[in-house]
Amino acid sequence: MGEVEDMLKDYEIKKEGEAEILMLASNAVFFNPVQVHNRDMSIAVLRTFVAKRKEEYEELMNKRNNKSHKKGNQVETPVVNGDTALTSQHDEIGVVHEKETNQATNEIEDLSKEETKTPSRKVTRELKPPIVLEALAASGLRSLRYAREVDGLGKVVALDNDKASIEACKRNIKFNGASAISKVEAHLADARVYMLTHPKEFDVVDLDPYGSPSIFLDSAVQAVADGGLLMCTATDLAVLCGTNGEVCYSKYGSYPVKGKYCHEMALRILLACIESHANRYKRYIVPVLSVYMDFYVRVFVRVFTSASEIKNTPLKLSYVYQCAGCDSFHLQSLGRTVTKNNSLKHAPGIGPVVPQECSDCGKKFNVGGPIWSAPIHDQDWVLSTLTDVRQMKDRYPAYNKITSVLTTVSEELHDIPLFFSLHNISGTVKCTSPSAVMFRSAVINAGYQISSSHCNPLGLKSDAPWDVIWDIMRCWVKNHPIKEQPRDSPGTAILSKSPQLEANFSRAVAALSKAQVKKVNRFLPNPESHWGPKVRAGRRITSKHISLLGAEALHGAMSHQDGNGAVTDEPASDTGATVTNEEENEPSNKRQKTGDGEQASEP
């Protein structure tokens, strides 16, 4: 026991879910406890995937067996020519018999007699457990949790191109005992090369990089098996949300526009990028869940192969026209379908959908995109995942967070892209904002749908056109007069028009969602301060990282470093996060741009 304690004295044991890992006090291997939300959500979706995959397989086998049964009833005495009848029959139901050629005739006769006696004979093949690939494993915590907590999984492969990370991963695999050793294997490899050399081999591929996943997407869509699940995280929201639009275009092939819906737009840009990479290999994606949480976006998509289905991709993509004066936005589809002589043809989208100037306020439009404008969730998957999570509450460390997100997602209008903010449109016309219930009631009473958005507590998604939205605000201002505004302001231009719709603000039954009626928490505060991204692995922690770590954590981290950033056992000084002379000589702590245009916190 003493030897074990001596071996573990340099490590700190971190426990999450059913997995435990050993972490050094240094920042050599990246670990962020904040990502427990990400890992819990991934486990929840992965469990749903395993169950859905089994259901789909059983349905397929039943369908094929029924088809085979009907064929057997139609033909009383099968005509056999060598192995042909046996091979075609068994290929149809996915069964391969390894028989010697000289025994084929006897086998066929036996099968014919069996079919005559029992026409309902079923032949099935056992479904293999899904294989999971974690492309950027670091400490291996995610892979260990998958292996230990998700029933029915096969092998879990953990990759990293950092030697220290793989050593830590292998150490953690051993530390978690026989169950982890039998399922998880770690490899030192470049994830891009590994995925390219293992096409369609993995049922699940997980990408959770530090920053942008763009360089991994091309190989990832090739590594996923047909019908498999690709899980992808992007943490470079400054790029995706419009702060660095030109960088976003270079990485994702879309130009973002700034708006309150920026986080949902980030999701849709990422989905459009994945679809673009998949289409190059005659593949396409079907999103099952797309969420914005904490400081990142995370998408879960299934990947299929079909040369004909990818023709529909332009129907799922749109450009965004965002008014520079008011909050109105409009979508322009890239493509359309035309029916001619009972045949379906694909054609370019007809546009533009907006005039040169906004019809509401008279200002110009900014153009962004293309973005994914099809649904970003599968409501059946969302509800199945939410039900499963509630039944296994004790197995999710971040149960409250993921249930709140899934609950809000389940109530979204899934076929309405983007959203607007009630406070923003009230600010445009310079009036006090109506309550969310009153505004939602007015929209519902006008004959339209409206829901909240999981991306923003103040966000509202609606199928009501913008002239209806502004008519409601005109009626509101009519009953709640405002001060006179400058003539050239967007609000003045909007209010100068008479409303064509008489808004009814009487409370509608559907103005509150089921979760709101039951007072279910939908938007939770951060569980602790400094809940966000951490310092990239390998970087020397200095006082400039206080905003990421906090004074206490920074003091503890710096106490374990020497001048070169290496781990030391010397006690920390009493000054805490005070800047040392050495730190004063370091470059400015202003955020610098790296060569590829991505923001970095250190030079």
Automatic annotation (TrEMBL):
<keyword id="KW-0819">tRNA processing</keyword>
<dbReference type="GO" id="GO:0032259">
    <property type="term" value="P:methylation"/>
</dbReference>
<dbReference type="GO" id="GO:0160104">
    <property type="term" value="F:tRNA (guanine(26)-N2)-dimethyltransferase activity"/>
</dbReference>
<protein>
    <recommendedName>
        <fullName>tRNA (guanine(26)-N(2))-dimethyltransferase</fullName>
        <ecNumber>2.1.1.216</ecNumber>
    </recommendedName>
</protein>
<dbReference type="GO" id="GO:0008033">
    <property type="term" value="P:tRNA processing"/>
</dbReference>
<keyword id="KW-0949">S-adenosyl-L-methionine</keyword>
<dbReference type="GO" id="GO:0046872">
    <property type="term" value="F:metal ion binding"/>
</dbReference>
<dbReference type="InterPro" id="IPR002905">
    <property type="entry name" value="Trm1"/>
</dbReference>
<keyword id="KW-0479">Metal-binding</keyword>
<dbReference type="InterPro" id="IPR029063">
    <property type="entry name" value="SAM-dependent_MTases_sf"/>
</dbReference>
<keyword id="KW-0808">Transferase</keyword>
<keyword id="KW-0862">Zinc</keyword>
<keyword id="KW-0694">RNA-binding</keyword>
<keyword id="KW-0489">Methyltransferase</keyword>
<dbReference type="Pfam" id="PF02005">
    <property type="entry name" value="TRM"/>
</dbReference>
<feature type="compositionally biased region" description="Basic and acidic residues">
    <location>
        <begin position="587"/>
        <end position="596"/>
    </location>
</feature>
<feature type="compositionally biased region" description="Basic and acidic residues">
    <location>
        <begin position="110"/>
        <end position="122"/>
    </location>
</feature>
<dbReference type="GO" id="GO:0000049">
    <property type="term" value="F:tRNA binding"/>
</dbReference>
<feature type="region of interest" description="Disordered">
    <location>
        <begin position="559"/>
        <end position="603"/>
    </location>
</feature>
<comment type="function">
    <text>Dimethylates a single guanine residue at position 26 of most tRNAs using S-adenosyl-L-methionine as donor of the methyl groups.</text>
</comment>
<keyword id="KW-0820">tRNA-binding</keyword>
<dbReference type="InterPro" id="IPR042296">
    <property type="entry name" value="tRNA_met_Trm1_C"/>
</dbReference>
<feature type="region of interest" description="Disordered">
    <location>
        <begin position="101"/>
        <end position="122"/>
    </location>
</feature>
<comment type="similarity">
    <text>Belongs to the class I-like SAM-binding methyltransferase superfamily. Trm1 family.</text>
</comment>
